[in-house]
Specification:
37% of the residues lie in helices and 22% in strands. It is α+β, with helices and mostly antiparallel strands and 873 residues long. It folds into 5 domains: 2-130, Rossmann fold (3-Layer(aba) Sandwich); 140-187 and 463-573, Topoisomerase I, domain 2 (Orthogonal Bundle), CATH 1.10.460.10; 191-254 and 390-416 and 442-458, Topoisomerase I, domain 3, CATH 2.70.20; 261-387, Topoisomerase I, domain 4, CATH 1.10.290.10; 703-826, no CATH class. The strands form 10 sheets. It has a 6-stranded antiparallel β-barrel with strand order 9-10-16-15-12-17.
Length: 873
């Protein structure tokens, strides 16, 4: 018997089927060991010795592997073909060696790029040893991330209360978002005008733009005001034009290469609206396999890759499919060969492509996310091997009889669509002008203007980053690796360092503070070049050109003294530095030119940054006599769209609705007076976006949803201390978000309340399941999706795993749930029985024995708090 170890249980069944009865395939469920989340797991003083800990859940998987190895001939480690996959195989092997479970068992490492019978069986014919250079690169990366996180984060906690964490790549990605926001804030808008005319030269009219005025070639800002623009418009109206030149230039547009991890994430964000995490989850399922006709088939090749090359057999298949679907004209003379200059270890892998292009996406019945992503991958691969598009770019120049005024019209004509018949790459923030087809005109022909317009424009700041553009920027700068982008961006959101507004990253004040702190005190370590340089050194480790411990020593010798230096600073000196660095943001100039640091309440105190356990804020120097405070990011009256302002007048009461800022954030207020009605802005609502309608909706909460059908008592919807809710007869049920408070209907509210009550019976019941997923493949226990206080989650036995943000809980499948549960278990998930409950469980034994004395042992009961304190120390 041969024992095969893969990462995921989703792969085990099809692979076992491909290999036959001589093989037994077991899953490790991801990593089996990790660094304990405590200080000292990486020890620089011991030459970076690392302590690894086997998770309790992983211990059972390893025990299954040990048991299976008894009498086995070969152990085949077949985890994923990347750095993480190599590390998982190494971890499994190290544990098995310590357990002395490999006596007489040969060990082989195999990799395959797709879960198909051909790929798997071919891989088994080419075993190798574990690539220790890849493992060393993993160890270096893991140690670096650990040392930065566990060394830098405590500095943040002590010097900048309210901060959550810092990370090697995470902090640099956050800096990108903050730097872009500062760039937007500092942008100076400039006015400019354009003049256009509808022109006819003996045929259909076309659009032309003014390019020369008063004998001078116009640049973008030459027409800087209405007077100049109207004078130019009138000159066009008065002029007589002739077609001075007609120029036609042939051009070709070549298709983009097939997807890498990064380009897949970018394109899925642009075209499908998927965030990076959602994209990778769907791609993982397509890779592991879908049931087609009773057989599990992997639909795409491995989805973590930086390579754009494609296997020769896939190129031949693509050309055959293109010829059959679109005709031989769409097949280039030779197959297109793509390459990239990247040096990282994953460059050896193929691009992401369908395992068989014959599986047309239109003929597959897939879950919505999987179907849309598979279609995107299929089209991209097909397009990458198609003929170029041929276009003709036409330019028509028109000139007045006196030569002082000129117009120009441009347009493209597609002569042959080529790959554009299948696919056109999305663009980031491209507000492209429409390209129109121009009519046939003759050089020297007379032309007349039908209508002339002068249009006002203003320059715009660079747009905030979307997921696609941020991933693209990180890749351009060499920050991190594409396989990590999804987790990095998720951490930024989970830490509340950023928020998403119209699918754009907006830094929260907390995120801005962390970035400025790091730039002021750890500038080197958030420099783009430094982070990219570390990635290049890690690639050298992967290639065997640099010892991983040499890299760590070089990093630690500067980083550790720097953290000790900053820990030695007083909190006041840190706040003073930040106060100065953030001055343009915290204290913008006033319209009247008065001192921006003077307290608006007492008139004599000075404003500066202060801190509390909730984080920094701006306060008055005359505290406690003057208690003026405001949150970071909020300005004085009228100085910022996020500060105090009037939203309008309530038609019902006739009172003014104000948006105000307080110590704990923005809120709306109805009228003035001693105790005006107020309502805080809920999570996800931003002060700049507030208007009268939104303000009144908040102030009119709670709203009555309807009468409960059982007792005809009202059901109310509102927002409380713990978030949005519905309330009936003393029972609260949570809602998913603030917007649902205004949208939830009677049926939905009744269902939520019923689920809450069924889960609150005696404090022991279980919430009604949103979805029953079936039996867990490992033990047959039920797996369910439930609704919890903090959102939907997956339950299996004592282990709970959150449903990823952005994922509809009703779309979760059993395979996805098993992976999430395994990941949660690997991190130490699962409910822990309270000590109080454990002791209560022992009580019946004494009663059953007929012993009355233990019930009166009061001194023993008094010792419980001390025991509890000791356990938590």
């Amino acid at each position: 018997m041969n024992i095969v170890v893969v990462e995921s249980p989703g792969k085990a069944k099809p692979i076992n089927k491909y290999l036959g009865s001589d093989y037994k395939v077991l899953a490790s469920y991801g990593h089996v060991r990790d660094l304990p989340a405590k200080d000292g797991s990486v020890r620089p003083d011991d030459d970076f010795d690392m302590s690894w800990e086997v998770d309790a859940k992983a211990a059972k998987r390893l025990a299954d592997i040990v048991a299976a190895l008894k009498g086995a001939k070969t152990l085949i480690l077949a985890t994923d073909p990347d750095r993480e996959g190599e590390a998982i195989s190494w971890h499994v092997l190290e544990v098995l060696k310590k357990k002395k479970a490999l006596n007489g068992v040969a060990v082989q490492r195999v990799t395959f790029n797709a879960i198909t019978k051909t790929a798997v069986t071919e891989a088994m014919k080419a075993p190798r040893d574990i690539d220790m250079e890849l493992v060393d690169a993993y160890l270096a990366r893991r140690a670096l991330d650990y040392l930065v996180g566990f060394t830098l984060s405590p500095v943040l906690w002590r010097k900048l209360p309210g901060s959550r964490s810092a990370g090697r790549v995470q902090s640099v990605a956050l800096r990108l978002v903050v730097d872009r926001e500062i760039e937007i804030e500092n942008f100076n808008t400039q006015e400019y005008w354009t003049v256009e005319a509808d022109v006819s030269a003996g045929g259909d009219p076309f659009l032309a733009r003014l390019t020369k005025h008063e004998g001078k070639r116009l640049t973008k800002f030459d027409l800087g005001n209405e007077t100049a623009a109207f004078a130019a418009r009138d000159a066009v109206k008065a002029a007589s034009f002739t077609v001075a030149a007609v120029e036609k230039k042939p051009a070709r547009r070549s298709p983009p290469p097939p997807f890498t991890t990064s380009t897949l994430q970018q394109e899925a964000a642009r075209k499908l609206g998927f965030n990076a995490q959602r994209t990778m989850q769907a791609a993982q399922k397509l890779y592991e396999g879908i049931d087609i006709g009773g057989e599990t088939v992997g639909l795409i090749t491995y989805m973590r890759t930086d390579g754009v090359q494609t296997a020769p057999e896939a190129l031949d298949e693509a050309r055959d499919v293109i010829g059959g679907l679109y005709g031989r004209d769409y097949v280039p003379e030779k197959a297109r060969i793509y390459s990239t200059k990247a040096k990282n270890a994953q460059e050896a892998h193929e691009a992401i492509r369908p395992t068989s292009l014959a599986r047309n996406p239109g003929k597959l019945r897939l879950e919505p996310d999987l179907g849309r992503l598979y279609e995107l991958i299929w089209k991209r691969m097909i397009a990458s091997q198609m003929e170029s598009a041929r276009i003709e770019r036409t330019t028509i120049d028109l000139e007045s009889s006196d030569g002082k005024t000129a117009l120009r019209a441009s347009g493209d004509v597609t002569l042959f669509d080529g790959y554009l018949a299948v696919y056109e790459e999305g663009r980031d923030d491209a507000d492209e002008e429409a390209v129109s087809k121009l009519p046939a005109v003759t050089q020297g022909a007379a032309a007349k203007t039908i209508a002339t317009r002068a249009d006002q424009h203003f320059t715009e700041p660079p747009p905030r980053y979307s997921e696609a553009s941020l991933v693209k920027k990180m890749e351009e700068l060499g920050i991190g690796r594409p396989s990590t982008y999804a987790s990095v961006l998720t951490v930024l959101r989970d830490r509340a360092y950023v928020r998403m507004d119209k699918n754009r990253f907006v830094p929260e004040d907390k995120g801005r503070l962390v970035t400025i702190f790091l730039e002021e005190f750890f500038k080197k370590y958030v420099e783009y070049d430094f982070t990219a340089g570390l990635e290049e050194k890690l690639d050298l480790v992967s290639a065997g050109d640099l010892d991983w411990k040499v890299l760590l020593r070089e990093f630690w010798k500067d980083f550790h003294p720097k953290t000790e230096e900053i820990l030695g600073l007083t909190t006041r000196s840190v706040l003073d530095t930040l106060d100065e660095a953030l001055a343009p943001f915290l204290y913008p100039p006033k319209a009247d030119g008065s001192d921006v640091r003077v307290c608006p309440t007492c008139g004599s105190g000075r404003l500066s940054m202060k801190t509390s356990r909730f984080g920094p804020f701006v306060g008055c120097s005359n505290y406690p006599e003057c208690r003026y405070t405001r949150p970071i990011g909020e300005k004085e009256d009228g100085e910022s769209p996020s500060g105090d302002r009037e939203l309008g007048v309530d038609d019902v009461t006739g009172m003014t609705v104000f948006l105000k800022s307080g110590r704990f954030g923005a809120y709306v207020q109805l009228g003035d007076g001693e105790k005006p009605k107020r309502s805080s802005l809920p999570k996800g609502w931003s002060a700049p976006d507030m208007d009268l309608e939104k303000g009144l909706r908040l102030l009119r909460l709670p709203r009555e949803v309807g009468l409960h059908p059982e007792d005809q008592q009202p059901i109310l919807a509102g927002i409380g201390r713990f978030g949005p809710f519905v309330l009936h007869a003393g029972t609260y049920a949570n809602l998913q978000g603030a917007d649902e408070v205004f949208e939830v209907g009677l049926n939905r509210a009744v269902t939520l309340l019923a689920e809450k009550r069924s889960g609150a019976r005696g404090g022991r019941g279980e919430t009604a399941a949103l979805k029953d997923l079936g039996a867990h493949p490992a033990d047959g226990a039920p797996v369910k999706v439930l609704s919890g206080r903090y959102g939907p989650y997956i339950k299996h036995g004592a282990t709970n795993a959150n449903v990823p943000r952005g994922t509809d809980p009703l779309d979760v499948t059993l395979e996805q749930a098993v992976l999430l549960l395994a990941e949660r278990a690997a991190k130490g998930g699962g409910k822990r029985k309270p000590a109080r409950a454990a002791k209560a469980k022992a009580a019946p034994k004494s009663a059953a024995a007929g012993a009355k004395a233990p019930a009166k042992k009061k001194p023993a009961a008094k010792k419980k708090p001390a025991a509890k304190k000791k356990a938590s120390a």
